[in-house]
């Protein structure tokens, strides 16, 4: 019980309900356009930060009241989704890094471990969707070691689900597995060589580059927005990320640096930052501040479209 004699579990489920409602409002907002909806995302991040902290501080009491591990995983999964959604809207690599951290925690702590072996089809689908979303994040971050680990895990889970839920149709998930296997098979030519992204380790700083004589340096032109679109039939793709748009996306970003190249470096975070205060674990490093060299310009915002209609393309471009 709290000081106001309200049960801990009641406070928790009230926070869950509030977070669910705010999440529903932002989940389907477009990932493009100049309307950034920053106020919406600040509010939903705030409530999920509060919810995550509350369940950490009261874990034992909540478990005794009936809280299940997959319900903790559901919170972490939604936070990871929110971070990835913000990455799509802003192209800021720090959000992508935060999303990876949450998904990795879900996998390592096995929050959805019993999904495929339980009798709960809904839980099994949650586990599969979480893995598929984590795969996308790992692809964009070029974390190929984790990508192959997740693909193997996904194959096993889909087979288990087919055996345990024979009345359900898992053809869509079989297609997802086929898509990622084909994707990786075609993309192997780009493995074990320098990344497509501009790399601080392998390339000169942009300030040292020579510009063409016709370039007007005073105007300081920079690429701020880009639309990456694909129209071909039968393209190699995973979900709606085709291989060509993936490579274009990589070419338009700076390679993550900082802690990605110095994994053992210690740092202290700012507790007021949503990204640092909400992540699993208490010893997290300040990824948001150390991921990218602050002297580099920001990544251009990118809209990734798969076979858009003309009206959709025009709506995104204005």
Automatic annotation (TrEMBL):
GO terms for molecular function: transcription corepressor activity. Residues 270-289 have a biased composition (Polar residues). Residues 270-299 are annotated as: Disordered. One of its GO terms (biological process) is DNA-templated transcription. PANTHER family: PROTEIN SCAI. This is Scai-like protein. It comes from Thalictrum thalictroides (Rue-anemone). The lineage of its organism: Eukaryota, Viridiplantae, Streptophyta, Embryophyta, Tracheophyta.
């Amino acid at each position: 019980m709290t000081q106001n004699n309200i049960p801990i579990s009641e406070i928790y489920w009230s926070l869950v309900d509030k977070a669910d409602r705010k999440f529903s409002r932002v989940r389907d907002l477009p990932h493009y356009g100049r309307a950034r909806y920053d106020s919406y995302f600040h509010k939903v991040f705030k409530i999920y930060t509060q919810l995550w902290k509350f369940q950490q501080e009261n874990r034992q009491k909540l478990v005794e009241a009936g809280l299940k591990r997959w319900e903790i995983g559901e919170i972490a999964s939604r936070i990871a989704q929110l971070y990835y959604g913000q990455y799509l809207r802003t192209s800021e690599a720090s959000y992508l890094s935060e999303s990876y951290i949450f998904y990795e925690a879900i996998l390592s702590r096995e929050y959805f471990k019993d999904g495929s072996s339980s009798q709960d089809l809904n839980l099994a689908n949650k586990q599969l969707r979480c893995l598929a979303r984590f795969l996308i994040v790992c692809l964009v971050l070029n974390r190929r070691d984790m990508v192959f680990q997740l693909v193997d895990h996904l194959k096993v889970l889909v087979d288990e689900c087919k055996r345990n839920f024979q009345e359900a149709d898992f053809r869509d998930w079989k297609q997802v597995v086929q898509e990622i296997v084909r994707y990786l098979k075609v993309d192997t030519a780009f493995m074990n060589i320098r990344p497509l992204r501009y790399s601080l380790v392998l390339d000169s700083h942009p300030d040292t580059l020579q510009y063409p004589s016709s370039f007007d340096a005073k105007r300081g032109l920079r690429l701020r927005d880009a639309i990456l679109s694909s129209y071909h039939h039968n393209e190699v793709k995973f979900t709606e990320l085709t291989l060509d748009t993936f490579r274009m996306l990589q070419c338009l970003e700076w390679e993550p640096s900082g802690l990605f190249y110095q994994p053992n470096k210690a740092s202290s975070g700012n507790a007021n930052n949503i990204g640092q205060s909400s992540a699993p674990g208490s010893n997290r490093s300040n990824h948001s501040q150390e991921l990218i060299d602050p002297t580099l310009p920001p990544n251009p915002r990118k809209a990734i479209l798969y076979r858009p209609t003309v009206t959709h393309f025009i709506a995104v471009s204005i």
